[in-house]
Design brief:
By secondary structure, the chain is an alpha+beta fold. It is built from nine helices and 14 strands. 36% of the residues lie in helices and 30% in strands. α2 crosses α6. It is globular, with a radius of gyration of 21 Å.
Length: 313
Amino acid sequence: MPRMLEPVRFKFLLGEWHLASWRPRFQPLRAGASAAAGWPVAADVRPEDLHPQADGYWCQQADTERFPLGLSRFGPWVCYVPRRERLYCVDIEGGFEPYLARWSSKSRYNLRRSVKKLHERNPAGLLELAERPEQMDAFLREAAAISRTTYQSRLLQSGLDYDVRTVRAMQELAARGNARGYLLRDAGQAIAFAWCAGAGDRLTYNVIGYREETAALSPGTVLLYLIVEDLFRLGRFKVFDFGVGEAPYKQLFATRALDFADAYLFRPAWRHRLRAWLHWRVDRLSSTIGRLLERAGLKSRVRHWIRALRRCG
């Protein structure tokens, strides 16, 4: 079996300000269902098995206590763990109505009211799905147009851009039945999007966005409700993965969460150690500034100023 490489983007962020990016390539290692808590064992991660063009190994979803945070040594490798993560997901089983029954009656009522409100405004339909290769170009054009207006794209450089390479990658996924692009429409205009990519029986909620001027309609939450409903109806995937990170909507929709740490085992070269150290220090500085602003009651105000400046720019 060929050894596949995956690029990983390390962002140098000061709060919500994107300073730079670093994109090493890794050979992934993922713990199997029977992996022990001490996975991986250093002796089993061998330099001779590493792809010659890889910068190192990526140990995915290891136990949170397996590696220390920050920089350390792991056998011959330079080990970097930027943070401990939490991944939320929805188990697609048992039907949509029993799934909704897990929610509080208030949450269920509020969400259904938002969905009903948009349905009444758009009796011809709200949700548009792109899943075939020939649909990917049009989907990406509309999704990228929304993404360019979001603060994630302006500040964090994490939006969805239109380019031929991305279209081709989406088309390849679609040809294997692993692409689902969703657009939420209001009065014919796309106001929110979600790009989801599948692997096996797992679908990941990769990139999302909505037009900020439509926030009163709760477009992101309504779209997510309709996506989960669609996946229960489809029955193709068993897990809907929200990706890492905390967010209120993830806690609301998820049926379970997994705590883990990704460890990046770099070849023992000074350039890897220096870049990882710089990334770690910038991340620590950003966290410290954030805590100080929060204690002073200024965090939300500063965030608002930064986003306003970016909109003006």
